[in-house]
Amino acid sequence: MAVANVGSKWVEGNLVFFSKITGQEILVFDAEDEKLVIPDGSGIETDLAAITLTAPDDVTLELDKSTPAKLQVKDGGVDEDKLAASVAGDGLSGGNGDPLEVLVDAVTIEIDNTDGLQTKGVSGSFEDGDGKTITVTKGIITSLGGEG
Questions:
Q1: Which range marks the domain in which residue 135 is found?
Q2: Single residue among 42, 73, 104 that ends a domain in this structure
Q3: Which pLDDT belongs to residue 3?
Q4: Does this model's pTM top 0.90?
Q5: Same domain, 68 and 119
């Protein structure tokens, strides 16, 4: 919002900033208690020395048990809807509303019935691209050879 669209007025000893477009209160300086208040039940206020969250949602955020209490992410408070897809990185997909998952080719690597990542029962010799031979027996690397 442009500064030209913000007005201010004194109401009952408090300085109230409001939108000149909608009339909506934006911020109130409570002169008696010397604190800034964001109106309309946002649960956020400040005493000019610290910001106090008076009503976290208790789903994603919570106050811990310390004194003074600290704001923290609640256990289980972040799900796939709150993760950016970029969090997944190489070898993972998901985020932006989709659960994270490991990308596998289903030929040599698979997710087993306990959600573990394992190689399939692949056997044979393979070149690693650098001219070295890798021998695999039933999914286990049994030798790393020299030049192929």
A1: 112-148
A2: 73
A3: 56
A4: no
A5: no
| Chain mean pLDDT for the chain | 76
On whether residue 28 sits in a domain, the answer given is yes
Residue 63 lies in a domain: yes
- Of 111, 142, 104, 145, the C-alpha closest to 128 is 145
R_g (Cα) of the chain, nearest Å? 29
- Number of domains forming the structure of the chain: 2
Residues 62 and 12 in one domain: yes
> Using one digit for the tens of pLDDT, what is the confidence trace for 21-45?
888 788 888 888 888 887 764 455 6
Q: Which of 23, 52, 73 is the last residue of a domain?
A: 73
Span 110-141, pLDDT tens digits = 787 777 777 777 677 777 777 788 777 766 66
DSSP the chain: --GGGEEEEEETTEEEEEETTT--EEEEEETTTTEEE-TTT--EEE-SS-EEES---SSSEEE-SSSS--EEEPTT---GGGS-GGGT-TTEEEETTEEEEE---SSSEEE-TTS-EEE-S--EEEE-SSSEEEEEETTEEEEEEEE-
CB atoms < 10 A from the CB of 74, how many? 15
